[in-house]
Amino acid sequence: MLKKLYHGAAFYPELWDGEVVRRDIRLMAETGVNVVRIGEFLWSTIEPAEGQIDVTPLADVIGRLHAAGIDTILCTPTATPPIWYSHGHPERLFVNAEGMALGHGSRQHACTNHPVFREKAAIIIERLARELGRLPGVIGWQLDNEFKAHVSECMCAECRRLWHAWLEKRYGTVDRLNELWGTRVWSESYNAFDQVPQPGPTPFLHNASLQTMYRLFSMEKIAEFADEKAAIIRRYSDAPITHNSSVAFHLDNERLFRHLDFASLDTYASSAHYAAYLLNCDLFRNFKPGRPFWIMETSPSHAGSIASSGVPHPNGYLAAEAVAAYALGAEGFCYWLWRQQRAGSEQPHGAVVSAWGQPGIGYRNVLQAERARQAIEPHIIATRPAQAQVAITYSDKAKAFLATESHGKLRHRGLVSGAYERVLRTGMHRDLVPEGTSLEGYKLLWTPFVPHLSSDLIERSLAFVENGGIWIVGPLTSIRTEEHTVPTDAGLGGLEPFAGAETVFTYAMDGTGTLGEAFGMKAPLSLWSTVFEVSEAISMGNLSGGPSPGLSFLTEVKRGKGKLVLLGSMPAGDDGNEMLERMLIHYGNEANVTRRADTTKGTIVAPRVSETEELWVIVNMNGEGGSVTLPHEGTDKISGAIVSAGKLEVGPYEYRVIAFPAAASLQ
Amino acid sequence: MLKKLYHGAAFYPELWDGEVVRRDIRLMAETGVNVVRIGEFLWSTIEPAEGQIDVTPLADVIGRLHAAGIDTILCTPTATPPIWYSHGHPERLFVNAEGMALGHGSRQHACTNHPVFREKAAIIIERLARELGRLPGVIGWQLDNEFKAHVSECMCAECRRLWHAWLEKRYGTVDRLNELWGTRVWSESYNAFDQVPQPGPTPFLHNASLQTMYRLFSMEKIAEFADEKAAIIRRYSDAPITHNSSVAFHLDNERLFRHLDFASLDTYASSAHYAAYLLNCDLFRNFKPGRPFWIMETSPSHAGSIASSGVPHPNGYLAAEAVAAYALGAEGFCYWLWRQQRAGSEQPHGAVVSAWGQPGIGYRNVLQAERARQAIEPHIIATRPAQAQVAITYSDKAKAFLATESHGKLRHRGLVSGAYERVLRTGMHRDLVPEGTSLEGYKLLWTPFVPHLSSDLIERSLAFVENGGIWIVGPLTSIRTEEHTVPTDAGLGGLEPFAGAETVFTYAMDGTGTLGEAFGMKAPLSLWSTVFEVSEAISMGNLSGGPSPGLSFLTEVKRGKGKLVLLGSMPAGDDGNEMLERMLIHYGNEANVTRRADTTKGTIVAPRVSETEELWVIVNMNGEGGSVTLPHEGTDKISGAIVSAGKLEVGPYEYRVIAFPAAASLQ
Amino acid sequence: MLKKLYHGAAFYPELWDGEVVRRDIRLMAETGVNVVRIGEFLWSTIEPAEGQIDVTPLADVIGRLHAAGIDTILCTPTATPPIWYSHGHPERLFVNAEGMALGHGSRQHACTNHPVFREKAAIIIERLARELGRLPGVIGWQLDNEFKAHVSECMCAECRRLWHAWLEKRYGTVDRLNELWGTRVWSESYNAFDQVPQPGPTPFLHNASLQTMYRLFSMEKIAEFADEKAAIIRRYSDAPITHNSSVAFHLDNERLFRHLDFASLDTYASSAHYAAYLLNCDLFRNFKPGRPFWIMETSPSHAGSIASSGVPHPNGYLAAEAVAAYALGAEGFCYWLWRQQRAGSEQPHGAVVSAWGQPGIGYRNVLQAERARQAIEPHIIATRPAQAQVAITYSDKAKAFLATESHGKLRHRGLVSGAYERVLRTGMHRDLVPEGTSLEGYKLLWTPFVPHLSSDLIERSLAFVENGGIWIVGPLTSIRTEEHTVPTDAGLGGLEPFAGAETVFTYAMDGTGTLGEAFGMKAPLSLWSTVFEVSEAISMGNLSGGPSPGLSFLTEVKRGKGKLVLLGSMPAGDDGNEMLERMLIHYGNEANVTRRADTTKGTIVAPRVSETEELWVIVNMNGEGGSVTLPHEGTDKISGAIVSAGKLEVGPYEYRVIAFPAAASLQ
To answer: In this predicted complex, what is the ipTM?
Structure first.
């Protein structure tokens, strides 16, 4: 399916004169750039006054790029509506949680739910699609830019109206809303949907259900906006559609990508946070299973703006990133941006070339990444990412629940990253899977930090267990209902009947001196926790110290051919990390997880397969070099040399592509 | 006067179905709960639409509780007006210092000074009082809930109008206001009362007098609201009325309780801050002298909300709290809350039973507290708290002054807690006394952190001195006039003529390297300080280093049979604490303070007396165990055993009740 | 030109009754106060109702002061308009960046650009000037008080209108604005000037050009206000006009003082920051070259307010400050304030006498300063500050650029202070010079932290180089165009053609591990940096480590008789400071800088000259004492003793006045 590997950059021909654009296209071709992304902020260029639309300059640039062998991802420019849209129309602006309307001059200042915005966006998108959608070289579309990166939930009057309609659709009657949200708690009770406030300023806390539902409403609305706009494009263009997203934005990525054609992401993790980079690859691969994803934006050197300053990548890191991405399922690896901004607020941001047209600090690394791309391309397109046997549930809905119920300190991203890093360290190949992902092919499933488990997810996961899988649930999972309330039947609600254990207590372990004992070691426990008394299950981890010593924080019970494991608390610190890794290896072994590589820290294996062979793309990501143990003799696909089984050394940021015959034992 | 000890919990029958309520009442009775508090947030349940009032469900619950042997404290529900009150009425909302109206969905969003609010509150309170006020089992009333816990001064238009009226009443003419506030300083001068702003946003600082007066205005208004509502209840009910208050709220507690019948408080101090818990007991006992107070809310285990997370008490601490409270003058000890909230924003808060009806993490501690209550009850009701000989002045007006004049760092609560802990450590039994408290019975009075001393307080305290008392004044006391200005007659204003010393300089000691030398030791001095030159007085503590070495920070002068002591500066750090404790013991000895127990740190003695005996209730509060030196042979009232004079060991969180014959020597 | 040295205090006769005023004048005269500043906040006293103006009380006070031998600096009271100005007129108020109008009750709440404000200010100023401007004793005027100390850019509707007019004047057409600001970046493009927003709240960052231009607009407008008001005064008074300014305020001081008559400043640096104090002297001397400046406000002991608390000066420091100021070019040294405020928000601020009329904690130091003033006066008035050979460029426009482009951490004041301290440590006498200052007389010029170099400054500085000067440029200098964009011709724009080096890369060095090697040592490099490849120039400092090792951060090239030196990066930490000092000494020697004293740290030499002799005023500023090496035998002007060449010891805060014959070698 994959035909080539794309190496690209964001390009803003509208910002530079024709001669600069011509030189840039020439230099791009020399550099090895084979795709550019254009158009995501140029609305005012093609519609300088309301209704005066002319997209022909874009057609011209696309044609010239195509002539130079460079394809185009075309963006809809709706992140930055022109001044004619907002001037004199405060009612069209995004309103933040303090009730402040945010104005023109930056990005995302328009409320994307306002009907006039929807209409104006539709008009400009239709023109772009109709006139440019079938041009040679246009290989894809990107909707807007980084939805909800700078803003979260809008509090404008139009959103209030839509919120009330959304509530009515969800609950039918306001009495049902009152009952499900428990609004009698503080006499919040509503007599009509139009009385339900947006979660604006109050003296103390808003109802948890209201807060979480407003987040879900907002997530649904932005996805609906994407759906609407994608539908317009499809009327005129066959090129696949994506959005450049991120786990950092206020989005439900699973929902967003449901009706889009491929997944893509922006990432500016520094080299010190290479695990965050890998997490993105292991997650975005799974939003559109079987379909390559794109790194749509990453810096060739450093992020930066007039209000921030990033650290340039160490030399060599960029190529390691590129190889890791391609090996883990990316089709494209693109920079933001080609030419340094000469104006605006991102002047200091790293670029491939400077504002005066000379190679930037990252340029040599871009060339190195291009050489790597060329070297691995035949091997990547001849294979596909191997099926992981380990899955970690990823849920942006869970992120919404934890944003509401943070206990003052819980950050979804940090929690999920911590869990991911534990799996990464075991060397087991892994997927981060959205809630709705099929569990076919997996052997071990971990579902941490998902306060509400949908009945569908419980049902499918239990079926996975019945069929031999091991499902580890927790911490902080299944402790809340769909409406963000506490279950009143049992601590873990609908899951508990299957657990062979009873939730006895729930409380935060921090500061209580409680230790967990499991897998031959002790570690402090942390976070809001669920404490169990086992019945049918057995305890795999007991509490010592604290207010409930002797009870269990880790239980397992056989169900069918598999096991259901409850992890009620979060082991903390270095010992906690070690304990979690032991737990993962223990259950990985029990589940017969075979796709696992023995590497030193900072070196990864991205396994790929074809009908005939299995490929290990080995990359050192931490710049310290390391080694990997090859299970068999293999072939270095780039040098052609035979490589013996056993320890293979890799230098700082070095990559290797080693092939083995397709081996059933690794599947 | 005390007939029984109450052990209770907040109960929300309106949130659960009838079957759950029935089961809860049964379980309460088994657990030993003999009182519940109901109704404080249920306005929307009994008046779902404006004017449609039905309080009969409450009558039914009260009846069923009574049948089960459980009494009721009935609350007025005014902290959470229903949606019909605020929807479409932004003018009725609380407005914060930034001018932002705070909306429905949480608590305290109504401006309690709005005439419509006063009217609607009167209607619902009258109905509750009329229909329920004489029901069997109703033993008390609580007005509203935690006044001014989440909000401080309201800035709404109605409050502006009332502010102007309050100013006119206080000052008569605007010229007088101008003169007393010194408004010429920055051309603030007003030509009419209605020009005087509320202390909203300004480029720099508001006039100190304006700020402090607005705080006092606000404190007066909320007390007036309480008075009004209490008057309504009294027309229909004889049950005594309280409010669940705290030193943390924006209130003048002395004023608030003036027209209420008994004092009560909410406290969520963690076990590490047991001294804060004891401070509450030693203070709230004195808002209504001779009348027991209530701990109206405390957690059976931990506080918590969706935005915060508390640490559960160590096992054993809860019973220690209960015993300490009863011994120090409490009649009731009540939990928030009986059953964990299933919805809203306080889902993680500790409760006696979980949302699914099982014993919570604190349940065993509740049972232990109940056993303790039963064990001590006969001994507590046979005695009364012993008269303390040491008093510390407590003033919420002073809190208002220091909120205005914080010097960027002064926190009234922390300062007062520090002073209290010094007295606690000496083992002297003590009262924290509101400004207006009679000084009858005391021997040593310490008045720290009261920037303005009223002439009444000066007069009564000097009379106390004349009669043999020792009065320690400062730090930060008597440095400002009633109008929050600097005295222009002398540094300490009206007090200085009696001091036998002259205020030479005032400045902040921090960072100057100044040491204080007193009681055979040196300690660094801190905070805004008053430096003295003695005349008639003698210096008990001299400065070394800094810009004014050789002068005095601690003076004493004989007046009548007693002494007036000025403490001009705050000794800091461990040495400073030691110096303050030496000072207190020194003057305690001079004043012949005999009611003092020799205990290890973390173990306290609460002395109680009857006509025939003196009781020492000894409690270990820090969980480390300790000992107390018994001055005489005594009787263990619980075991009946004789206990020798000398050292008595107590285990972690252990309590003992030791009786001695009534001994004049301890009075 | 200098006839006497003034020693003064701010005086508020309007706040005290006549008897207090009379006593204060008497005590001032005794204390040695020979000038007071009056009137800057008394608008409401002289115009209590709109149009009812009576300034005669001021005339009376001025007369009485004059009779006591005390001169007067008369202030215009526009920082605090009376209540009649703002009450009922929210449209006249200052509006902050969040869109919040700031109200009456403090200072600077009026928008100084509002036409009604301009009119009312003109009326009161004219009356003051007309009636008091020629009174005996009136020796100067101060406009307003601390412009833009508490507020920065106003966002009111009137300012919006003026902003649009200012833009139109600056750019002519909106197309030109769009082009120069690069507004196509995020579709910001404007179709008319009246669409250009003020930099209010947006979801992400505003365009850099818009932000910087709004700052420059605001700086221009407040200077225009000063110009207008000075013009009125000049119609009636010959006394020179100043404003009490500071580098901490949101002002362009060079522009502000352009049409004023002398420079003055307020400073409250603590003794620990004596270098900040000296920086002020070395800068403000140069706003009106050849004309003495004034320290218009400094505390006799400590700063303070109800919201802050300062540390009193160590005894002795005040006289050191006074001597340093006079020696470095001050004519006046004045305290804020004479008598402690009895009311308002600055009650705790240090004053010469207390609110109750007694000497304050600083009083003895004031007397010591007065003795010093008398001792040095004849020697100061017989000489003038020596011409410095070293200049550091100071630019408040650069401050505006860095406020816009802070990279999240850059603070202009801290950066400039750091640079200044490096020069101070070398012992070279120095000027901080505004951008437009003539370079006549200098040998070494350092221009750090000026993102945009005007073509005029480049031209004049290159001419300075041609004539033999050495010009060190950077760090962070010449990296932006006049419109706050990135140059597109070369990294350093118009300067680069003269540099003999090419800007290869720009990036932030922090966190990259890059070291700079120069002058025989290594130091870590920091901040946004410019990396060079030399052509004609030679590299004086190379990079090691990081992403661009081997390139240059420090280049020099001969131009005419001098050298152009580029410093592309900021050496950091102790090693960085040492490296910078070595660089300065190296180029100081090359440039033949002879005016340099060899002192221990914390001891300074302020050189002064006359036709016949050269004076070294030596002051120990750090309270630790120290020494200075005298190049020749000299005369102690105070004792008359002969002092040998070589090491001269000075005690803590001691000062000496040593005269040498006028020595060409030092010129």
So the answer is: 0.97
